[in-house]
């Protein structure tokens, strides 16, 4: 199965030695490598009655890749460990690995190593390596009072898509697709780093939650401007059909893997980035100057 | 749980940015990084009624580390993803991560990233990164006719320990310990590389099987000298008690993660290495000049 997963695949120039030996060797041109790992478990992070195995593979790679671009780096290599029941059809593992390779191709990266073992449920564990291209990494801890807060990519689409699926609503294909396979704005990460971003993270747990982690790491507060977070027509339509609050999806929905970053006040925001608020002295995440932790009614606010 | 696993742990100088951001950053001094990944699943790769969680953690790190030293490199960093049932006691995950850190300390390496998620069974997926220290990697494909074949570390101990456990024999504590936590001869890998090893791999599937992979990759045959593979008194005693063939454990037992390498005929073998045979033109693994694939009676011979 491992042979099937790697046979005939092209490796990028960064792969000095691909799969097949005890370990792979990857170029790290600037003398440092960025690394992150994530594990996805069937029934918890994906459902095979909702998502195709190919979509699961794409999603697993996307969420790992987003962690690398959120440092301002670019993924070069992925290592993939898959656990699956012995009854798993070969077509399923083939589609899973095809999805992995398809998303890896978005980065012109390679799958350089892997392991495939028997397990009671499908488990996909991915490690991604990336290259900083000579730049310093952009950390969560770099936000400073006075900075602009900006976002690249979609907010709330995955959460809205999940709500549509759970309610078994017809339509809203774009939202459902966003839930099944996130489309993180990969190139916006290195672009932000080169434009002078002071802090950055990807939105995996929700905008308020992930900005909260940045505020804690940076020792600052963030004030979001709700007028700049206006949900688009897709979210508004789904919210109306479901009797839900579209702004709540925008503020608390995770898994879209948008990027949120802070920039000095005098820096013009680069392509793909839009302003959503400001960094202040203090702590925590405000919306329109008010903390909604106390009486705002968001269970997921933190 | 991730916080518990990384809090208060020292990071080596190679860790430029440890856990806590979207990704970690690791030094890669010579411009390349060696990487490998392995997944261990409860019930398949370990049993918690036989092994303590700490032993499972040590074993998971050991088998990953062995892949790096088998390239002649040295591990610098580990990324650890753990899936476990929600009912798992904190004492179990604490002991598991303590075992992981204990074995990682054998390399003066660091755990630089991780993920902990709910799963139906305990799954430990580890990725290891290593540094070549400016040397070329030692590949499986480098063996040449005329080379000496040499081994560092134990052969057959893990298989004998497993047989003892399965038979519920008393005694043989050293063999059982060898099965629960392999003790690969880590330093012998880089030592072999510096001494001029032409090819190298670690013995994870068994000496004959792993040498077979080397023969295929190198386009050569290997002739092992059974007189140089004489099982020691521990294996002999267990074989007598079980009515088993100790040489069979030596030739086919895996999981000790011994290192097997080839050296030019005129190279004095470095410390820790002992000669066990020769590289010939041809294909496959012979013992005392004869192929035992046909009538030798080893099911696992390949």
TrEMBL record, chains A, B:
Residues that, per the record, bind Mg(2+) 5: 205
Positions of substrate binding: 45, 255, 298
Keywords: ATP-binding, Kinase, Magnesium, Metal-binding, Nucleotide-binding, Thiamine biosynthesis, Transferase
Transferase recorded as keyword: yes
Record InterPro entries: PurM-like_C_dom, PurM-like_C_sf, PurM-like_N, PurM-like_N_sf, ThiL-like
Top EC class of this enzyme: transferase
PurM-like N-terminal domain location: 20-130
Binding site for Mg(2+) 3: 22, 67, 202
Pfam family, one: AIRS
Binding site for Mg(2+) 4: 22, 36, 67
Function text: Catalyzes the ATP-dependent phosphorylation of thiamine-monophosphate (TMP) to form thiamine-pyrophosphate (TPP), the active form of vitamin B1.
Family the entry assigns: Belongs to the thiamine-monophosphate kinase family.
Protein name: Thiamine-monophosphate kinase
Organism: Rhodococcus daqingensis
């Amino acid at each position: 199965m491992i042979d099937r997963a790697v046979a005939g695949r092209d490796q990028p120039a960064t792969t000095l030695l691909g799969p097949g030996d005890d370990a792979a060797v990857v170029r790290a041109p600037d003398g440092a490598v960025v690394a992150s790992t994530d594990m996805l478990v069937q029934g918890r992070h994906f459902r095979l009655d909702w998502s195709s195995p190919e979509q699961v593979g794409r999603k697993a790679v996307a969420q790992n890749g987003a962690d690398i671009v959120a440092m301002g780096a670019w993924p070069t290599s992925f290592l993939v460990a898959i656990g699956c029941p012995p009854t798993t059809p070969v077509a399923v593992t083939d589609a899973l690995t095809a999805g992995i390779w398809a998303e890896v191709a978005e980065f012109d990266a390679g799958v350089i190593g892997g392991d495939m073992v028997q397990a009671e449920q499908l488990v996909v564990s991915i490690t991604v390596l990336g290259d900083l291209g000579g730049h310093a990494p952009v950390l969560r801890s770099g936000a400073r009072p006075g900075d602009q807060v900006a976002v690249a990519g979609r907010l709330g689409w995955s959460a809205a898509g999940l709500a549509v699926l759970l309610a078994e609503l017809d339509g809203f294909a774009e939202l459902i697709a966003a839930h099944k396979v996130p489309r993180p704005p990969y190139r916006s990460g290195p672009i932000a780093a080169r434009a002078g971003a002071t802090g950055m993270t990807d939105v995996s747990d929700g905008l308020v939650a992930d900005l909260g982690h940045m505020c804690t790491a940076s020792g600052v507060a963030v004030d979001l401007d709700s007028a700049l977070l206006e949900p688009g027509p897709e979210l508004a339509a789904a919210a109306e059909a479901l009797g839900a609050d579209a702004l709540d999806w925008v503020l608390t929905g995770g898994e879209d893997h948008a990027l949120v970053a802070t920039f000095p006040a005098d820096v013009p925001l680069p392509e793909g980035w839009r302003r959503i608020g400001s960094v202040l002295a203090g702590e925590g995440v405000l919306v329109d100057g008010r903390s909604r932790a106390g009486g705002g009614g968001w269970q997921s606010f933190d």
